[in-house]
Amino acid sequence: MGPGGGGGRAHRGVDPDRGLDLRLLRRLTGYLRPHWKGALVALVMILGAAGLETAVPLVTRHAIDVNVAGRDLDGLLRSLMLFLGLSTGAFLLRCGQQVLTGWIGQSIVLELRGRVFERVLRLHVGWFDRHPVGQVMSRVTNDVESLNELFTGGLILIFQDILLLGAISGVLLWMDWRLALVLFAVVPLIFLATFQFKRLTRAAFRRVRALVGELTGFLQETITGMQVVQLFRREAATRQRFARMNDELMRENVRTIFYFAVFFPLMELLGSVATAAILWAAAGRLLDHTLSFGALVAFLAYADRFFRPIRDLAEKYNILQSAMAASERVFELLDEQPALPSGPVGAQGGMEAPPRRGEVEFENVSFAYEGESWVLQDLSFHLKAGQSNALVGWTGAGKSSVAALLLRQYEFQRGRILVDGVDIRQWDVQALRSRMAIVLQDVFLFSGSMAQNIHLGRSLPEGAVEAAAQRTGLDRLARQREGGLDEAVGERGQLLSGGQRQLVSFSRALAGDPALLILDEATSSVDSLSEELIQQAIEELMRGRSSLVIAHRLSTIRKADQILVLHQGRLVESGRHEELLVKRGVYHRLWQLEQPVGGGRLGH
Amino acid sequence: MKQLHEILRLMGRYRSRMLSGAFFVLVTNSILIFGPRILGQAIDDLRDGDGLVRHPLGWYLGWLLAISVGQGLARFAMRRILIGASRRVERDLRASYLERLLELPRSFFAGRYTGDIMSRATQDIENVRMAAGPALMYSLDTLLLSGYALTMMLWIHPALTAIVLGLLPLISGLVWWLSHHIHLATMDAQRCFGRVSTFVQEALSGMRVVQAYVREEEQAHRFRGHLAEYRSLQMRLVALQSAFRPLLGLLFALGQGLVLWQGGRLIVEGRLSLGDYVAFSTYLTLLSWPMVATGWSLSLLQRGSAGMRRLNEILLAASDLTWGPERAGSHPRLVVEKLGFTYADADAPALQDISFTVEPGQALGIVGPTGCGKSTLLRLLSRQSDALEGRVLLDGKDLRQLEADALRGVMSLAPQEAFLFSATLAENVRYGRPDAPDADLERAAEDSRLAQDLPQLPQGWETVVGERGVTLSGGQKQRATIARALVPEAPILLLDDALSAIDTRTEEALIQRLRQVMGRRSVLISSHRLSVMREVDWIIVLDQGRLVEQGTHAQLVKQGGLYAELWRRQELRSSLEEAF
Ligand SMILES: Nc1ncnc2c1ncn2[C@@H]1O[C@H](COP(=O)(O)OP(=O)(O)OP(=O)(O)O)[C@@H](O)[C@H]1O
Ligand SMILES: Nc1ncnc2c1ncn2[C@@H]1O[C@H](COP(=O)(O)OP(=O)(O)OP(=O)(O)O)[C@@H](O)[C@H]1O
Ligand SMILES: [Mg+2]
Ligand SMILES: [Mg+2]
């Protein structure tokens, strides 16, 4: 229990067993397409380098067989120059190719990461209820990073290895086909060992990855909730729970070492077996002089090079496989459909939006976050343009949910919502939202300064930030500080007091030019003096605009043109303050509770 | 390289393991080194034509395979032992990292980013592990292998070896230079990646704001800016790395060329056998691995020590909170004397010269305008930070003299910011006392008025509340934190702005309940809702960190100061009502 308790709950299992999924691979290589010229050049360079590298032992062979055997020192020098020339050429080509593939890989990763992020930005809020930040983060950062490896170290180099393998096999066959066949006999063993290894490590890796995910999720939540952990003396329990995961991860990791420790020596052993077999096969032919020593030496050198690409390919397969698992997770995000499709009204190139009036109409709206637990039922009301409205009701009545629907953060099941006369489903989401400004009940501040938090990078007229800060009284508080509004607020605004955070968030809403202002408990943590000042200050600002104020303190909404009383998701009363009091219903009861009953309860 | 020393110290616990691992490195290389020698002899024997003079062919082949098997076994042991040890070091490091974090006070976290603390736990610990495991293993391996290979080469032909030795300083120098710059570039790239992650994390956590204010495009634009910077830093790294391996290859080819030329001359002059030449160049090939590995290990070691440095910033961070041995009584008297506090980097003190007393079972109200220091005061009382001036006494004992458990057992705080873990509601409310019986849970729910909402929640107590409690309404979240503070039954209850998200009916009921609680426990409650202040025994009024007024509600209202002013605003609007 405790932190991280739900960390893994929403985790969607991705099967790393998929191996080489061609559909995925095709999609991945699609990202290579814009860079095809560069990729082609890199491929040519690789071919060149591989060719040169393959030629080098031939020069060595020539030097030994012809120059040394013929006691031709000048020839030896010439061979040597050739040798160095080839090596330098290979060096230059390799450098160039690696820089080029590096650039391509980095560019693809940039593109992919950018797209994933843009997609995530357009997912609806309900999606984020189910996907913890840490998990989405790890897709945008880690998973995309492992695709980088695929593009820089994988895809292009696989071509090289395959080509190299072909070239070397060709040379070996050409030099001595009988010895070559002896060598090739080992290859099936290598593949067998590799696949067996893959099978075993894959399962182990999957467990490791799951454990790492769990551990990081737990750590993340512990750090964000550190205050609570310490306040409730849960250090020991937290430590123990962490230690359990930590130990298990360690054990699992040690287990994977075992496979590696077996695999690599085994590969070397197979190499030695091949060398021994070649020697054995060569012995007789050396004796009857059908094979030269130079040829044998060169052959052994090639044999060594023959194993390298095979080993590399095995490793690449590994990269490819983890890249597949990662790309699956990344594509899953990219394919995530925004559950709330955007309509054409107000969209660029779409239908023209109606004039900004700030009019809202709810028609028999019913809404549940999940299943049949209705949060709003059959809700109908009308916010007239330019009117001030208030939404009141007991906690959990569904007030914030109304605001969420208006902002089109969730899809509702029944009924219709009209904003400025247009069905909310027909609206372009962004155009719709830019008509409104909301102070969310849960204040969120970005790290950065107060001014940045108010401004949010919008195109606001000069002085809008200062004016907004002045209306909420934030500037008075900020002036007590050296940096004023430019003072940093820390992560989530934790360097500010609760009320100050709320004032920043309030100023943010006022700085724009909304047709409809939604205040969800916008002054709940602010003292009554400031609250009154704010009310006076915004009264003038709100003239001609609509507002929807959600508040528990009825005194703050008394003057509203219309008060809606929500009870368990239903509208039970509506009207002006005086009308509602006369009705002696829910509102009246709420109101009475708020009234001071003289000194009767004092002196307790 | 002080940090490397430290890494070694961490490995000290596994000394015997490390020693046996080192032994296997020795064994591996001792066996390995005979391979080329035998191959060379076999070739010479074959070349001498007339039959196998010294040994039959099978003898050579047998040895070749035996060497391979022996070496493989030793290498297996080496890997298991050394890398295994590094995994243990990793685990120890991670455990002590968390342990340290758990001890650090709030002030430590206030100026930091979660992403940064996380990246140390993931990236940096991994870097240290790589230094403690693979890097150390390969360094040892390399050292032995090159020592052996050079010995064998010297044995075969000293003059030829001299050529190779002449090249070595050049190669090592180059490797060092390159790996140093690779290290610097890596650090830059990693820092930038940290910024990228922090950016993503913030954008995701603030998604509701981003979307409500249609900031998607601007966010995406800024993100692309970060990404472009990251790419250019990565490219610097790529350029260096691209040069690294091929350059080594080139230098190595240079060595081979020189050996070929000199060796060729020696063979022509009859001063070197072909078999010896083959063995020699095979040893030379063996050396190519140490050259690559040296550069690699060096950069791993550098990265490891950089990681260690970053970890030490936390592992060695001073916690100014120290605890004593004392315990407090079950109904302690709370005395605050001349308390003063200033936040780091703040120009003005957040609290100054605050004194008051709370008798057991009394209720104290804390009132004051936004930012006056109410939360700061409650933080000092619950000892998330220490007062810089003055002291807090519980039953006459200074807070700093108390045991951690004792203090936290006495004080129970519901913080202003309602934070819940992504667990079930029951788990969250039980957080302070996991073994609390259901009856206590129910009572806490009744007292905090959370009970009235339970039927509304899809799975009642078992509802998973989502990250930070996002799937609860504001008032539900707040009451869940109050319930959580009630469950441990601590004699002093601290409620910070605990009524802000609660409607008047629930507030009324909550206060009724709290009144019963108040009889049994001391309650300190800060609130902007002055209605609750009529219920408390004593009120202190803060303004800009100073205690400006105190008294009962009636006294303060009569006094006509700040409190009366605040009260009048609330009452004014209410009593205006009487007119209707
Ligand atoms: N994201 C969500 N997922 C699932 N259920 C939710 C979610 N948000 C709110 N709820 C549930 O919907 C109901 C209404 O919540 P809402 O936040 O609309 O209440 P509210 O009227 O704003 O209350 P408060 O005054 O406490 O803020 C509550 O029972 C709550 O638990
Ligand atoms: N971690 C911090 N670092 C620096 N300054 C801080 C920090 N936390 C709070 N402050 C500042 O100290 C002052 C007192 O803050 P505190 O949170 O105690 O106020 P408060 O009385 O609880 O206000 P509110 O009613 O808004 O919750 C404020 O000016 C605030 O900006
Ligand atoms: Mg709400
Ligand atoms: Mg506060």
Descriptive overview:
The complex is a heterodimer of chains A (604) and B (580). Chain A is of the alpha/beta class. Chain A has a domain at 22-334: ABC transporter type 1, transmembrane domain (ABC transporter transmembrane region fold). Chain A is built from 19 helices and 10 strands. In chain A, the strands form 2 sheets. In chain A, strands 6-7-8-3-9-10 form a 6-stranded mixed β-sheet, with helices on both faces. Chain A has a 4-stranded antiparallel β-sheet with strand order 2-1-4-5, covered by helices on one side. In chain A, strand 7 (516-520), helix 17 and strand 8 form a beta-alpha-beta unit. Chain A is elongated. Chain A starts with 21 loop residues before the first helix and ends in a 10-residue tail after the last helix. The model of chain A is unreliable at 1-19 and 598-604 (pLDDT under 50). With 580 residues, chain B is an alpha/beta fold. Chain B folds into 2 domains: 2-315, Up-down Bundle (ABC transporter transmembrane region fold), CATH 1.20.1560.10; 334-579, P-loop containing nucleotide triphosphate hydrolases (Rossmann fold, 3-Layer(aba) Sandwich). Chain B has 18 helices and 10 strands. In chain B, strands 6-7-8-3-9-10 form a 6-stranded mixed β-sheet, sandwiched between helices. Chain B has a 4-stranded antiparallel β-sheet with strand order 2-1-4-5, with helices on one face. In chain B, helix 16 links the parallel strand 7 and strand 8 (522-526). In chain B, helix 6 (114-156) packs antiparallel against helix 10. Chain B is elongated and about 120 Å long. Chain B starts with a helix and ends with a helix. The model of chain B is unreliable at 576-580 (pLDDT under 50). The chains are: A alpha/beta (604), B alpha/beta (580). At the A-B interface, helix 2, helix 3, helix 4, helix 5 and helix 7 of A face helix 3, helix 4, helix 5, helix 6 and helix 7 of B. The complex binds adenosine-5'-triphosphate (2 copies) and magnesium ion (MG) (2 copies). One adenosine-5'-triphosphate sits between chains A (129, 369, 375, 393, 395-401, 441) and B (456-457, 470-476, 501).
